[in-house]
Description:
Layout: H1 4-16, H2 21-35, E1 41-44, E2 54-64, E3 67-76, E4 82-86, H3 94-104, E5 109-113, H4 128-131, H5 134-145, H6 149-164, E6 175-180, H7 184-193, E7 198-204, E8 227-233, H8 234-239, H9 243-254, E9 258-263, H10 279-296
Parallel strand pairs: 4-5, 4-6, 6-7, 7-8, 8-9
Antiparallel strand pairs: 1-2, 2-3, 3-5
Helix pairs in contact: 2-3, 6-7
Amino acid sequence: MCDPFTESENAAFLKKASLNRRQVSVMGAAGVAMAAMPACATVTASSDGATPPTMEGSQVQITLADGVCDAYFVRPSGTAPAVIVWPDVAGRRDAYHQMAMTLAGQGYAVLVVNPYYRNAKAPVLSTFAEWRTDAGQATIKPMREALTPDAITRDAAGLVAWLDQQPQVDTSRKIAAIGYCMGGPFTFRTAYAGKDRVGAIASFHGGGLATNGMDSPHWLIEKFNAAMLIAIAQNDDERDPQAKEILRQSADAAGRFAEIEVYPAQHGWCTIDSPVYDEVQANRAFNRMIALFDANL
Length: 297
């Protein structure tokens, strides 16, 4: 998960891969430039060479039990099954808007959450690189501490209810939740909070999915009804090789479908402004997620 250990591992990985500081900076800048979008816009994206679908993206305000959450909502014309996106530790930002637009282009109404809404409007940080600084981590620390299991469960219940009230959401189909890094375990809590509505969850390099604590996300598997894609970073697996086994045992015991795989990529590989973004492995994980959604939403 996103912590000093992970960052040191990724720094060592980049050094070994002969990526110097200038190359990393260019990678990050390119990702952010590609991701930039206005607060409310009509966008288009290609879909298998067919006529590009028209999509509308806008900032929305969602009243939850703990306050008003600001989020980004992008969807194709007509109605579509809904997907909740929990960002990584750096929070909701342009990179995730771009990622949401790509997913919406596949036919989904996508809601990108600001998990730190209790403390600040998004973006708290503009890029993942800002979180890697001392100032960025100091900014995020107290906000992250507020994200208790109970708080996320309350948020998730409210977000599911809000989506079901939107005319652009096809309520005859299930909802999905996806999460990156810190957001990975939030998908489990979303499936638990919306057990009657959430049909699939996907965790990409999610941290703390199977711990020794009584509030570990893996204990919730038997309490929800969602199919799972759990994509694990190679360095996360090296540090905690038992996690995947615990998740497999929990899924099998509960009779839940779970695709659990260690990808040959570093923690953060799916986020486009991450210094270890891996386009090939990110696309493979994305395609596995779409297959999961096709089968379960």
